[in-house]
Amino acid sequence: MQVLKKEVSEFELFYDLIFAYAISRIASILFVGADQVLSFKSMGEFLMLTLVFWTIWTYQTVFANRFSIKNKISALFLFFDMFWVIILAQSINVDFEKTHFTFAGATSILFFSIALQYYLKMRSTEDSVVKKLCYQLAIMLCATGLIGFITILPWGAYSIRFSVYAISIFITAFFPIVMKKNLEDFPTNFGHLTERYSLFTLLLFGEAVIAVANTIVFNKISIGSVLFFLMVVVMFLFYNAVYKSGIERQKETAGLVLIHSHYFIFVGLGLSLVLYENYVEAQIKPLFFVLCLAASLACFLGGTIVNMIIYTKKEHNYLPFISKSVIYFAIWIIISLLIQDFIPLFLFVNVVFLLFLLYKVKQELI
């Protein structure tokens, strides 16, 4: 099936702005307690909420990538969904149980809205492949929306209702992997898809700069804030290098690796920013910080490198690079544990490590 070339529209960018704001809002539930660590509960909710927003954004993005037509109906759906994403974003609360009614209700409305778009597309096409694909996705989204509404009803303990809600979101998020064959029969417009994900990640880096700004007082600029900013810059350069030079954007593919790897990229970026911000302000235990930072950077760097390997522009054996990178990462963790109490030195070593890894990636791309 021929895939026509298209660019990311102003409507799509407008839509992405509210999601970038929403994902940045999720960081508000990650607060450091009196024991100077992040609670496992808040970290679990952070992962869950990020999954919710990523899932909704991804389903709408992939629909626009495959089927979007610039007309009044598409625009109305877009603006309708944006309003409910705003409600969703404002429902984010440290005590998630208090806002579950609004949050789960809003996600259900959004899932039903996207399902309706797939249904209308199914009714308007004669292509059997497209019909089957739209039918399966519409049923999946409707089922998840229905479960979301059920969990806001007052039955059973909240922990049980939340677990049911979380499982339904997880299944919906990764259900396309099961549909890989059907999705490959009607591939994405991969150039448009990579551009959409990279631009959205760029918006998140914009939120990262705001996180740096939160550590700066107008009459006192610490070396920690400067190094924090450099960390954000190098992480951006790392992602941008892979996107610009490491991905073949003309591939005929379902794009499942690109899509699902970005969940880990978003999680890694968001969590690392919260950790850095609290570390610069000396509000978090250094040992806890180092261990959590290692996990978050593994998500961000790993998710980015996976795209370089899977969607490489030319056949290349990346195994030596992967093996060496794992060793470099292990050495960085060991050094970090030794200098964890010295904030400027630790941040400087972080910048050097990421610059070194960026250099190695560019060497591979050459």
TrEMBL record:
> Which spans are transmembrane here?
12-34, 46-63, 75-94, 100-121, 133-156, 162-179, 199-217, 223-242, 254-276, 288-311, 318-339, 345-361
InterPro entries xrefs? Low_temperature_requirement_A (IPR010640)
Instruction: Name a Pfam family for this protein.
Output: LtrA
Say if the entry is tagged with keyword Membrane: yes
Per UniProt, the keywords (alphabetical) are:
Membrane, Transmembrane, Transmembrane helix
Record-given protein name: Low temperature requirement protein A
**Could you read off the lineage of the organism from its UniProt record?**
Bacteria, Bacillati, Bacillota, Bacilli, Lactobacillales
